[in-house]
Write a structure and sequence with these properties.
heterodimer; A: alpha/beta; Rossmann fold; Dimethylsulfoxide Reductase, domain 2; Barwin-like endoglucanases; seven-stranded mixed β-sheet; six-stranded mixed beta barrel; 27 strands; globular; B: alpha+beta; Alpha-Beta Plaits; two-stranded antiparallel sheet; binds iron/sulfur cluster
């Protein structure tokens, strides 16, 4: 018997809506939800079937038997694993206080459950992976607009000109937005792409700036300069909603296109022609403010400049521009309930909220907990346990080698994940979560022009002895006497609790997989209704942010040129491919078949100087020679000569993942000293500030002797 | 006469290789055979923008296929609507078809030890659906054309 299940993809954190066909508890077909995606799905989305069948994932709870990372595991039952963790957590609470436990997860719609758990246990220390992802962008938006990164959505479909600074949409795929870009281009819209290399997104562009790595800020400032000089900006809007605009004008004065052209290694004429186009296309111009901008030392200010450019384009809450995502309130509907427990009134271990007052207190900053692990002196209390909920600190943050020494000071490390993560392999307990096709998740709200409720439903029964996260946290909560924060026994109870008072039941999701909260898109807010939308201290878009000033940080930071690599060294850059999601999918049989290892992109001229040919084996060595690995060269003229580039997530070291074991090279292990190199204004780690030695490897065969 | 054709709109294709996986999942294929392939030309600068052209190749469903007559058991069949497919019941896995095809299109399915190739997803087509690769293409760059309708 064939059945259809509407659900949400879990192969990356875009979480596309899907429709799954199931026959005899086997998934035979997955496609994008036809009501929302017209069936479209990416390679990873389809390869979810291979994840289900993969036996190289944890199949029952595991407790460490040998030393950390030795890979000797005791297979235990779920109650044994729960009891083991609970006992440890109780002991740690007694000895060090509940605040010495950290829980990290992925961001996204389900974090409230994990946050509730750690708060109810008594610790304020919930954190997520965002310090290696969108934190700079988020904080840039907060400092300017008073709302976070998701406080604005982009009406790409109706725009006339989309400007992307390194936002590689067609590799770091968002399917729905990607299709909007292509529709926009089909309708005669323009795409400008800025990057240090050419990408699958850049090949669709009308204008391409190949800039020197770390000079995005110069280009953004020059465009601000020119837009102000030509008086292109919307004066009424700025008078009404923007503070300290004069300071911006004075600041941008010196950053001319001629100067930026030199700094970035591009043509002044091209910048001028670009601004000519902007003038034609305004206000239907979108400067994408970036997503994963945990990159250069000034990425926060790049994002801030891009946000400012949107204001100068006059695109706020306009068609073809940025718009405020609408919620249930805009539809005259009641929202759903989500799990919640107030944060304990204890200082955070990462210093966010008391030592660092300009950061969002929600998830804090994961990398700042290392400080607390290192020394007790400066910090209020030690960190003694870390629960990683589908977060892999060793893959996401630099220098796993150094992280291990710090995590060694913890009495308990727990990994809850659908697969073995690098962190999980080093931890004390692995709780195997059921894969996204084998589990239910709570209902979530998706804001937008047409807000909706959507839910992930289990398509098939779990193949192994794995559990959904709602059950894992419920079981732990029961044992820790905090079950009142988890008011359910079954997922049906939870759904009913979430939907109480909305007039909907879970059955209402069956027809299409989601519920529209309104029939027609909510109209844009009137221009004079925007008053309450900017949640800054002044209620205006703040060019000079009070929060930054109070923290002793500049709002308009003067440009500083990036460091140049010394001879024989290159700036190490990372990115994504459309067939892999960082470290999550490297061991998936069908995706491994498409991309078994990463390569190192290197500029043709730079390669020639080093005698490197396409396909050669290269030795890549960290700046302090603490780590070295080999990788094949991909020689191309379309990358800046100062940089080398690779796809992140490879070089895994989990023997049970036979396909990905030691396949390719891990960029994070090459980032010597970068665990402490972070953006004081944006909070994120500077992942593109590492330099590496590159040379042709001795291991390239000259001749091969077999006998 | 061939009735069907798969067309790739290179302007929309983003080289994400999803079509290749969609095809494998639909046919429940293991690691090994890949029935369609996306490739692109080396990047070339056009007015300052490095550009490329994508192409999609599965099986040409030849008007006069080399693979059909060479099959010793008559497992390779060309239907009236032009679709060339392998009858999995009859195929003995000798792979004579692959040898005869100028592009070595038929491949061995190591799980069944039989030949497998693109058959335009005929079960889907016969139900009035489009092939898997076309239906689920990430960007709707692939189109399934029914030539008699043009
Ligand atoms: S982009 Fe691909 S992997 Fe990510 S949620 Fe969508 S279909 Fe799944
Ligand atoms: S799925 Fe579509 S966009 Fe992706 S490679 Fe195939 S044809 Fe191109
Ligand atoms: S397998 Fe080769 S010979 Fe046979 S129809 Fe396809 S392309 Fe033609
Ligand atoms: S038409 Fe069907 S069999 Fe042929 S390549 Fe596409 S998905 Fe595969």
């Amino acid at each position: 018997m064939k059945k259809t299940v509407y659900s949400i993809c879990g192969m990356c954190t875009v979480r596309c809506p899907i429709r799954v066909e199931v026959e005899n508890n086997r998934v035979s077909w997955i496609e994008g939800n036809p009501h929302l995606m017209d069936h479209a799905l990416c390679a990873r989305g389809s390869a979810g079937v291979a994840l289900l069948d993969d036996d190289e994932r944890p199949q029952q709870p595991l407790i460490r038997d040998g030393g950390r990372g030795a890979g000797r595991w005791r297979q235990v039952s779920w109650p044994t694993a729960y009891d083991y963790i609970t006992e440890k957590l109780k002991k740690i609470k007694k000895e060090y206080g509940p605040e010495s436990v950290v829980l990290s997860s992925r961001g996204g719609p389900w974090q409230s459950m994990y946050k509730t758990f750690i708060h109810a246990y008594g610790s304020p220390n919930y954190t997520n992976h965002d310090c290696t992802c969108g934190r700079n962008t988020h904080h840039a938006s907060m400092s300017l607009n008073g709302v976070g990164r998701k406080g604005f959505a982009y009406d790409i479909k109706n725009t006339r000109h989309l400007v992307l600074f390194g936002r590689n949409y067609f590799a770091s795929l968002q399917i729905a937005q990607g299709n909007q870009i292509l529709d926009m281009l089909d309708n005669g819209g323009r795409l400008t792409y800025v990057d240090v290399r050419q990408t699958m997104t850049g090949v669709k562009a009308d204008r391409f700036f190949l800039v020197r790595p770390g000079t995005d800020y110069a280009l953004a400032l020059a465009v601000i300069h020119e837009v102000i000089k030509r008086n292109l900006y919307p004066k009424d809007f700025i008078d009404k909603y923007v503070s300290d605009f004069d300071e911006l004008c004075a600041f941008a004065e010196e950053y001319t296109p001629a100067w930026a052209a030199k700094e970035c290694g591009i043509k002044e004429k091209a910048i001028m022609a670009f601004v000519d186009e902007l003038a034609e296309d305004m206000p239907k111009v979108i400067f994408h403010p970036g997503w994963n901008l945990s990159r250069y030392k000034d990425s926060f200010y790049v994002s801030r400049a891009l946000h400012i450019l949107n204001v100068l384009m006059g695109n706020i809450e306009t068609e073809g521009g940025l718009f405020i995502p609408k919620g249930p309130g805009d539809c005259g509907k009641k929202g759903i309930r989500i799990l919640d427990c107030p944060k304990p009134d204890i200082k955070r271990g990462d210093g966010v909220g008391w030592k660092y007052t300009h950061f969002d207190k929600g998830p804090g900053l994961a990398h700042l907990f290392f400080e607390a692990m290192r020394s007790k002196s400066e910090n209020p209390y030690p960190i003694k346990a870390w629960i990683a909920m589908r977060h892999d600190p060793f893959c996401g943050m630099p220098e796993p080698q150094r992280q291990k020494l710090l995590f060694d000071r913890c009495d308990l490390l727990v990994s809850i994940d659908t697969q073995y993560s690098e962190f999980g392999w080093y931890s004390d307990v692995i709780l195997p979560e059921s894969s996204y096709l084998e589990r239910d998740n709570p209902i979530c709200l998706q804001k937008g022009a047409k807000p909706r409720l959507i839910v992930r439903r289990k398509a098939v029964e779990p193949k192994y002895d794995t559990k959904p996260s709602w059950e894992i946290f419920k079981q732990l909560a029961d044992r820790l006497d905090i079950s009142e924060y988890f008011p359910y026994n079954t997922i049906e109870d939870l759904y009913a609790w979430q939907l109480e008072g909305t007039g909907y039941t879970i059955r209402d999701f069956e027809e299409k997989g989601f519920i529209d909260l309104c029939d027609e898109p909510i109209p844009l807010y009137e221009a004079d209704r925007l008053k309450d939308q900017f949640k800054t201290p002044s209620g205006k878009i703040e060019i000079i942010s009070k929060r930054l000033t109070d923290a002793g940080l500049p709002s308009l930071k003067p440009y500083e040129a990036p460091d140049k690599p010394v001879r024989g060294m290159f700036r190490l850059l990372y990115g994504r491919s459309a067939v892999h999601t960082h470290g999550h999918t490297i061991n998936n049989p069908l995706l491994e078949e498409l991309m078994p290892a990463n390569t190192l992109w290197i500029n043709k001229r730079a390669a020639a100087k080093l005698g490197i040919k396409d396909g050669d084996l290269l030795d890549v060595t960290a700046s302090d020679a603490s780590y070295s690995g080999t990788i094949h060269a991909y020689v191309t003229e379309f990358i800046h000569p100062e940089a080398v580039y690779t796809v992140h997530g490879f070089g895994r070291q989990i023997p049970l993942q036979t396909r990905s074991y030691h396949a390719g090279l891990s960029d994070q292990k090459l980032m010597s000293g970068k665990l402490d190199d972070w953006d004081k204004a944006g909070g994120a780690i500077n992942l593109c500030e590492a330099f590496v030695f590159v040379q042709r490897s001795m291991r390239n065969p000259k001749r091969r002797i077999e006998l | 006469m061939n009735k069907y054709l798969i067309h790739l709109n290179s302007k929309r294709c983003i080289g994400c290789h999803a079509c290749e996986v969609h095809c494998k999942i639909n046919k429940n294929l293991p690691v090994g055979p890949i029935l369609c392939e996306i490739s692109h030309k080396p990047l070339k600068s056009v007015k300052g923008v490095p550009k490329t052209e994508f192409s999609f190749r599965s099986c040409y469903h030849c008007d006069d296929p080399f693979c059909v007559p060479v099959c010793p058991v008559g497992a390779m069949i060309k239907r009236a609507d032009g679709i060339v497919y392998v009858d999995q019941e009859k195929c003995i896995g000798c792979m004579a078809c692959a040898g005869a095809c100028p592009w070595t299109i038929p491949q061995l399915n190591p799980q069944t030890n039989k030949a497998i190739k693109c058959d335009y997803c005929l079960e889907r087509v016969d139900q009035g659906l489009k092939p898997a690769c076309v239906t689920k293409c990430t960007t709707h760059a692939l189109k399934f054309l029914c030539l008699t309708e043009i």
